[in-house]
Amino acid sequence: MKNSGFTLIELVVVITILGLLAIVAAPRFIDLSGDAKGSVIQNISGNLTTAINFALLKDQIAGGTGEPIDYNGNTITFIAGNPQPDATQMRYLLEMDLPATTFTSNWSTIACKNSEFCLVGNRPFSDNSLPPIDDFNTGTGVFIWPKGYILGDCFAYYLNLAKDDIEPIVDYVDTGC
């Protein structure tokens, strides 16, 4: 009677191949933190859009004058018919627990570390330390990025282009999350 089964060499070859596949495939499945940060940045962008639309609706209910409005006990001011991209106002609109100021002259080279998110507001389009954004050639913007990152390739932003006939831009960049 002949025994059938796998030899020790065949088992070692199969285990080696499985090990190599695991080495190649594991990083794609294990490092999900970047995907999670990217999803959070996308969520912040969506929340910014909703909050800005809500503030615009409150302005319309008040007569559409563009005068400051009360937003949950905080004052929101407008520029060219849209909320001012001020860091403090964005904290109010997003109802996020963020530091009162996270401004530092080197926020494009030193990672955010003071809270879960950092933000900088009222940044003019001419600020060369900002990441390049298409159509940001007038007005000011606010930028929000997560702890452990610099303002570079993982952030949400709101740009008030300061013109009545141009819609503001709310978007995100998650290529480096």
List the main descriptive attributes of the protein structure presented here.
8 strands; alpha+beta; 3 helices; single chain; 34% helix; two-stranded antiparallel sheet; 177 residues
Summarize the structure.
The protein has 3 helices and 8 strands; from the N terminus they run H-H-E-E-E-E-H-E-E-E-E. It is α+β, with helices and mostly antiparallel strands and 177 residues long.
Account of the protein in words:
Helix content is about 35%, strand content about 20%. With about 180 residues, the protein is of the alpha+beta class. The chain has one domain (about 30-175). It has a 4-stranded antiparallel β-sheet with strand order 5-6-7-8. A two-stranded antiparallel ribbon has the order 1-2. Strands 3-4 form a two-stranded antiparallel sheet. The N and C termini lie far apart (about 60 Å). The mean pLDDT is about 85.
How do the strands and helices of this protein lay out in sequence?
Blueprint: H1 8-30, H2 33-61, E1 69-71, E2 74-76, E3 78-79, E4 82-83, H3 87-94, E5 117-124, E6 140-146, E7 155-160, E8 169-173
Antiparallel strand pairs: 1-2, 3-4, 5-6, 6-7, 7-8
